[in-house]
């Protein structure tokens, strides 16, 4: 999971650097960057499923709160495993959407 997260960040950075010289390489690296969080997303979904925890739907109040209120990192230690995994799923979906918009 850590490697997938790091890989996504690294490809975003490399794509930004490549933008100065090649749009083709920038687009390729941005597409690769979208795949890494996708792997991480599957890991969090698997975690919830394996532990029989509820995965929030897009229109659940908890999901909406994450989308419109910045999660306070100081509260993360107080979150249950279900809340943490779902919060990460929401944030990964937002990051993926923003990368798609950038493309």
What does this 3D model show about the protein?
With 103 residues, the chain is mainly α. The protein has one domain (2-102). The chain is 73% helix and 0% strand. The chain contains four helices and no strands. The protein has helices at 2-18, 23-50, 61-68, 81-102. α3 packs across α4 (81-102). The longest helix has 28 residues, at 23-50. The radius of gyration is 15 Å and the shape is elongated. The chain starts with a helix and ends with a helix.
Question: Which descriptors would you attach to this protein?
Answer:
mainly alpha; 4 helices; 103 residues
Strand-helix topology:
Elements (H helix, E strand, L loop, with lengths): L1 H17 L4 H28 L10 H8 L12 H22 L1
Helix pairs in contact: 1-2, 2-4, 3-4
Overall tally of domains = 1
Largest sheet: none
What is the count of β-strands? Answer: 0
Count up the helices.
4
Q: Which bin fits the share of residues in helices?
A: over 70%
Low-confidence stretches: none
């Amino acid at each position: 999971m850590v490697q997938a997260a790091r890989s996504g960040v690294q490809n975003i950075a490399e794509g930004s650097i490549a933008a100065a010289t090649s749009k083709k390489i920038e687009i390729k690296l941005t597409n690769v960057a979208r795949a890494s969080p996708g792997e991480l997303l599957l890991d969090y979904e698997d975690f919830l499923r394996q532990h029989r925890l509820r995965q929030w739907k897009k229109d659940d109040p908890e999901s909406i709160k994450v989308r419109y209120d910045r999660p306070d990192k100081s509260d993360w230690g107080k979150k249950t495993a279900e809340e943490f995994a779902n919060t990460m799923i929401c944030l990964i979906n937002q990051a993926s959407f923003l990368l798609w918009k950038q493309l």
